[in-house]
Write a structure and sequence with these properties.
Structural class: alpha/beta
CATH class: Alpha Beta
Keywords: Cytoplasm
Distance between the termini: 37 Å
Organism: Eubucco bourcierii
Subcellular location: Cytoplasm
InterPro entries: AB_hydrolase_fold, KANL3/Tex30_Abhydrolase
CATH superfamily: Alpha/Beta hydrolase fold, catalytic domain
Protein name: ABHEA protein
CATH architecture: 3-Layer(aba) Sandwich
Length: 139
């Protein structure tokens, strides 16, 4: 439903997006993945995290959209280890996402300096260093 793609009814609600992502993980037979979620993918990843976060080994939101759709209490229930990542030049979505995601009890924050919204493209080495450091900490 973004750009030139037509709206897809099968992922029109948070529930159907959770079911869609769950179906993909089952079809690929992926057990306890780390879900990396930049920007628009937050519409899929955040509801999945809140409903089925126990199926994830970790979560890496990168200035995702949709963080304001959930309450601090909902975030506080999630026990998935999380690395909140954003670029310091992303003063709108990155900062906004942090305000909501900081309620996740098992989170760390990594701010990439001199990087914008697509911080993984602006500073790929710093991004990979932060991501790999987080992955090494997971059991």
């Amino acid at each position: 439903g973004y750009g030139d793609s037509p709206p897809a009814e099968m992922v029109a609600t948070a529930q159907t997006r959770v079911a869609f992502l769950d179906h993909i993980l089952q079809e690929l037979d992926i057990q306890r993945p780390v879900l990396v979620s930049p920007s628009m993918s937050g519409r899929f990843a955040l509801p999945f995290l809140l409903v089925q976060g126990d199926q994830l080994a970790g979560f890496v939101p990168i200035a995702p959209v949709g963080t304001k759709d959930y309450t601090a209490e909902q975030y506080q229930q999630v026990q998935t280890p999380t690395l909140i990542l954003y670029g310091d030049h992303d003063t709108s979505l990155g900062a906004q996402a942090l305000q909501s995601l900081r309620h996740l009890p098992r989170h760390h924050v990594a701010v990439l300096h001199d990087a914008g919204h697509a911080c993984y493209m602006d500073k790929p080495e710093d991004f990979h260093r932060a991501l790999l450091g987080f992955l090494r900490q997971l059991k």
